[in-house]
Amino acid sequence: MMKDRPAQLFRNNELNEYMIIVLPYAEINNEVKNFKREFFKKYGPYSGQNSCAHIGLMSFFQTADREEKLMQSVQEVVGQLKGFEVFLNGFEFDSNQRSVYVDILNKQSLEGLYHQLRLRLFKDLVSLAFLNKNYTPMMKIGQNLSPLQFLDAIADNKTRAYTNNFRVTRLHVLKRKAPYTTWESLAAVPFARAENELMGLH
What we know:
Layout: H1 5-12, E1 15-22, H2 26-43, E2 55-63, H3 67-78, E3 84-94, E4 99-104, H4 108-124, E5 139-142, H5 147-157, E6 163-168, E7 170-177, E8 184-190, H6 195-198
Antiparallel strand pairs: 1-2, 1-7, 3-4, 3-6, 4-5, 7-8
Helix pairs in contact: 3-4
């Protein structure tokens, strides 16, 4: 009987990876998919070419037995906040990760949301090692490009115009189990509704 206990303990505390993201409207997702297809045709394969359009907030590992507490913490933070608009504007580039992304004009709302989640999750569950105090919201097109891909992407897109906007009304929580290859949707967590949203004006 004693030989069976370690295996049972491991199963009960399976380590999952979680990611919290913002998803835009379907129209914007389709536009970003077109950008990704265009990049693939011009520059060849790259990391992120098949992912949907999203703004990543955070990702971290947590044992499966803490999942209910994790979701409760996220719901309590988000349920006290009202939805907000996100305005997209043009393309930017990160030389450290050799990434290309759609820039966000009004970063403050997403930054504030990130830091509230970070503090709550650290208090309840998650090591700060997973939760960087520095956060810049962005909608990535691709990352970890080769040096040549990155230089070509900058030359082709640094003055390229793109604008759109969408309203954030919920956060999406994803998870994946070992061997951490495929994300699955865990929950869509709604923000508190403003009065005009309750009246159907948004």
